[in-house]
Amino acid sequence: MPQPSTDYQEALAWLYGTQRFGIKLGLENVQRLLRELNVPGKDQRIIHVAGTNGKGSVCAMIDSICRAAGCRTGLFTSPHLITYRERIRVNGEMIAPNEVARGLRAIRDLVGTWDPHPTFFEITTALALDHFKRSGCELIVLETGLGGRLDATNALTPVVSVITPIGYDHEKWLGDTLEAIAGEKAGIIKAKVPVVSSPQEPAAEKVIRARAAECDAPLEFLATDVDSAVIDRRYKVALAGNHQRQNAALAIAALRAAEIRTSDDAVQNGLANVEWPARFQRWDDRTIIDGAHNPAGAQVLAETWREQFGAERATIILAVLREKNVAAICRALAPIAARFILPQIRSERALPPDELAAITPLLPYSITPSLADALILARANPERILITGSLHFAGEALAILQGDPDALEDCAQ
To answer: Torsions phi, psi of 315, nearest 5?
Structure first.
C-alpha cells in the first residue's frame, strides 16, 4: 500500500496533539468553528444518530440506501479501524490524504490563538462538514461521538434524530444510571424535529418520551418484533444478526420520518450491499471479527454467534480497553467460549493481558506477546476464531490480517 504523504502525516500529528485538550463536552467552541467555516451548506440535509450500540451500522445503512437511490452522501462516523480517513466518506469513498492535510491546515491556522482550543473531535467534525460542503453532498449522516446533548455533532439541526439501543457505556462522562445516559443521548432531540428510536428499556424510553414532549418533536418507537419480521420478509441485510435487521428497520423509519424519498429497489440494494467492517465480519471460513466493546454489545455478539453457529464454541482472542466494564463483557462471552487467548496489543488504553486474565471467567486461557502470536495459537485449535473486545483491537486485527500492520494509524475518541 502506498505510504501517505508527509503533509498528511504532519497534519495528523498536529491533530493528535490536540488530544492534550482532552474531551470537552459542550457546544460553544464547535459552534464558533462551524460559523467561521460557514458549514454546513445551505441546502444540505442532516440525519443525526445517537445511542449506545448500533449507531455506526444504522448510519452505514442509511448512507448505502441513499446512495442506491442516487443521492450524493456524506458519512461521518467514529472511531476509525485502520485509517483516520475512514471517518469521513463521500459516496462511500474515504476522504483523500491531501484533502485531510488541506482541511486541517486551514483549521490549524484558524484556531491557533483560540482559548479554549478546539478538541480532536470538534476539529474532526468541522473537517468532515467542510469536506462534505466542498464535495456537494446533498445528505449528511452524522454519528455522535460521545453521548449526544453536548457532543460536537449536536451543534447542527437535522431533519430527523435517530436513537439506537441505549445501554451502559462511557459512564465516566454520561452518568452511571440508564436514566442519566438516556438523558445525554436524548439531548439530540430538537424542537419539532421528528425522532425515531429503537425499542428501549423502560427507563430509557421514559426519558426519551419526556424530552420529545418537551421539544414538541414527533416521536416513533419501533416495535420489537414486527419491524424485524417485515425486514426478513422483504429484504436481505448484508450484516449478520437479528439486531442488524432491527437496525435496518430503524434506518428505513428514519428515512421515512425525514421524508427522504427512496424506492423499494434502492432500499433492497442498499441493505444487500451495505458494508460495515468489524461487525460480525467473516474474514474467512474460521475467523470472525467483531468490535463489541461494552456489555450490551458483547451480549448481542453472543446471541449472533448462536444464531449463526448454534452450540459451537469459539476460541476467543480478547482485548478490552481498561475503562470498560471488563467483567461484564467477559461474562457475556463466556457461554460461547471454548478458551480465551489474551494478546498484548498496540493500544495504550488496553487492559494488560495479565490483568484481563484475572477477570476472565474460569475457562482455559493463554497470554501472548502480540496479536500475531495469538492468531498462530488460535489456528492450532479446532474451533472457529472470534476476535473481539474493542473497535481499536478490531482495527489492529484487520491491518494484520490484510498483511499491512504498518497501515494502522492511531485511534482517538
So the answer is: -80, 115
Same domain for 97 and 198, yes or no, is: yes
Q: Do 201 and 315 share a domain, yes or no?
A: no
Structural domain containing residue 323: 281-407
Residue 226: is its pLDDT beyond 90? no
Span 65-88, mean pLDDT? Answer: 98
- Position 76 in a domain: yes
Query: For 175, left (φ over 0), alpha (ψ -120 to 50), or beta?
Result: left
Q: Is the pLDDT of residue 413 over 50?
A: no
Computed on alpha carbons and rounded to an integer, the radius of gyration of the chain in Å comes to 21
- Is the Cβ–Cβ distance between 127 and 104 less than 8 Å? yes
Q: Quick: pLDDT tens for 183-224.
A: 999 999 999 999 999 999 999 999 999 999 999 999 999 987
- Each residue of 93-123: pLDDT tens digit? 999 999 999 999 999 999 999 999 999 999 9
User: What DSSP letter does each residue of 353-369 carry, written as one string?
Assistant: HHHHHHHS-SS-EEEES
Residue keyed to cell 452505514: 60
* Whether residue 353 has a cis bond before it, omega within 30° of 0: no
Q: Please tell me whether residues 187 and 72 are part of one structural domain.
A: yes
The CATH code of the domain that includes 363 is 3.90.190.20
User: Helices in 135-225 by DSSP H: which ranges?
Assistant: 171-174, 178-185, 202-214
Helix (H/G/I), strand (E/B), else coil: 193: coil
- At 179 the pLDDT is 96
Look at residues 246, 273, 300 and tell me which one is the last residue of a structural domain: 273
Fill in the amino acid letter for 43. Answer: D
Identify the sign of the CA torsion 171, 59, 301, 290. negative
pTM above 0.90, yes or no: yes
Q: Which of 253, 273, 293 is the last residue of a domain?
A: 273
Per the CB < 8 A criterion, the answer to whether 273 and 237 are in contact is no
**Separation between Cα atoms, residue 302 and residue 391, nearest integer Å:** 16
Quickly tell me which residue has 470537552 as its cell.
24
Residue 1 pLDDT greater than 60, yes or no: no
pLDDT exceeds 50 at position 321: yes
Q: Give the residue carrying C-alpha cell 472470534.
A: 386
